[in-house]
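Q: My labmate handed me this sequence with no annotations at all. I'd like to see what the chain might look like in three dimensions before we decide whether it's worth expressing. Could you predict it?
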Amino acid sequence: MRASLGPTLETVKHNCKVAYSSHHDPNPAHFDDSTWLDSFYSIDGDLIVALGHMEYHGWEHPGQCSSKDYDPACWYNADTFHLSKNGGYHFGSFPAPGNYVLGVPYKYEVNRGPEGYSIDTNIVKTGDWYYAMVTGWPWPPNCIEGDKSNPCLVHSGGSPIRTSNILDPASWRGWNGQEFAVTFVDPYEMVIKPNHVAVSFTTKDHVFTPVPYMDCVNAINFHETSGLFIATLCDPYNTEYGPEGIYLSTSPDLIHWSEPTLVVSIDQLRAKEPKGNWSYAYASLIDPRSTDLNCSTVTDEPYLYYVRMDDSNPPYTRVLFRQKISLHWSVQH
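A: Here is what I predict for the chain of 333 residues:
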């Protein structure tokens, strides 16, 4: 991971110094394979927390996949805790289980993926709570929601998580449909009572309940004037919300979300580009006028950031774009 550095959003430049490098640990119980730091929270400008999107790539490790090439059936996801004490110039890791933030309560299974949870948004603080959004894949393979013969043990979709202590990776709690009571257990760690008897647990108590529309969430912001959260949704692969594109949805509580509103379609983005094999992802709102150290708040005129990828030259021929947009609000009764 390398940072873009500068005094303002308008003047940041790519920096070649490595701030974090994945360890590619072949043991899935260590949650330390291919890791992208993508959820940051600066506490004071020097101490910065980062949550890592950890992908265990079974196909890269002998005996962990039937294929030696990229194979989503051998893809296992969890989120890990990282910390910088020097303003983000370097992030450190912690050995398992101290690095474990959240994941599904099931161990990695060869050729039975994709499996796991992923926090793909930024972190927002309101009041005493820090919030983020987590997403997951339906699991086991080919499961059917509500089918008693082949039920989904893990649900597809997204949901809010929260903590009051961002420095404690085990303190995050998920939404269970009624309250933030879902604890995320490390499936490789057995809890032992003083008499050395393993404590059993019900796995469904450690699986979050999805909320509407959040399966394609990329970022969340807080709009101080309206008191609403805004979710940026990037849906370049299907027409769940409407035409393929980037959408916004609002919520007073991160649980109840409005029907997504289209900001720009993928076809409209492609129409502005020279001819090419383009795809788009990683959308978020960032406002240079934000008064928050982490830019989690926005005014009525934020920038929409997104990434254009050249699918003829994958995977990392990418360009970061931004476009100023205007938010218009209507009062509903």
